[in-house]
From TrEMBL:
Descriptive protein name: Protein kinase domain-containing protein
Cross-referenced PROSITE patterns: PROTEIN_KINASE_DOM
Domain of life: Eukaryota
GO molecular function, one term: ATP binding
Domain Protein kinase: start-end pairs: 44-338
Membrane topology: Single-pass type I membrane protein
Organism: Miscanthus lutarioriparius
GO cellular component: membrane
Localization in the cell: Membrane
Amino acid sequence: MGFLSSRNTNITDNVQMRHATVEKFLWEMRRGKRFRFTTRQIAAFTRNYSTRLGFGTVFKGTLPNGLAVAVKVFHASLDQKTEVAQFMAEVGTIGRTHHVNLVRLFGFCFDDAMRALVYEYMEHGAQDAYLAGQGHDVIGLPALRDITVGVARGIRYLHEECQQKIVHYDIKPGKVLLDGALTPKVADFGLARLVNRADTHVTVSGIRGTPGYAAPEMWKMSGVTEKCDVYSFVMLLLEMVGRRRNFNEAAPESQRWFPMLAWTKYERGELKELIVAPSHGTSGSAAAAGATEEQEQQSIMEMVERMCKVAFWCVQQLLQARPPMSVVTKMLEGEVYIAQPANPFQHLMAAPVAANLWTTTTSCSTGNGILTAGTMETKGA
């Protein structure tokens, strides 16, 4: 792979990094240069892995030039084949990209003792952890919408603007990181795959994605397109709208799965009931702009409706009905009209055909006489 080719594999010296300014370092990143580090350097950057970031084997570190980084060390419990496959998947995808809404890869370590990736450090960490914690009571819907737009732009870049299409396969809140300004960046490309633009469908090996976010076709492992990322993206979006997990087992049965609840409220013209304002501060930017409370509420209502209509198009059962990410982004930004979505959950509501055979009043001929629905058990008694 080009990333690990001989011209890129010279070990980066600490003195060289110390003498380089952060600006020069980042400039070289933009030119596509990646740095190769030793196991000893990785241990020094992370102070012997003293500060773990969230779950997994990701540690905070500092390069000799003072730049904060996050170091992802591949799990020792993984078999070597899986470990190398995930390492190469990340290197081969995110190593080819540069976009404000994709986490930036600075360098790597690859030897017999260790495989590690060195990424830019994201101050607020994973989106789901931040919004469930310190950001829960202060982040209003306009800021949440801005985060979703940023994520949409990042996925749009992967699907439509790279030289080769990149399908992430595991978009979810835990794979979106937030910097100090709440700029979202899509991360963790361990399941990602490069796809030729001429390919309409891809056969995947093994189940990918996370239950609750993965598109239905992912479980079939065939006929998969980049539209699986579109589906997963709006599962993330809907959690932003509801400020809750999409599935809540403790909720009343009719409210357990938020996507269905949102559709029901939309059909009844009751989307206003979904709005949950933060408990501290204002609910949005309209108040800061001098708008009245009524105008602010109207703005929030329009935002919720727009986000929900986008979501309902993106979770359509028919893959061709889901819009591409370029259109999704424009819809969220208010640049295009959003047509009335069809019920995306109709297939879950309709009675299965097989069940209809036993619930209709049509008589069925048997070898011993006539069997009608509702009398099947008694006739055989």
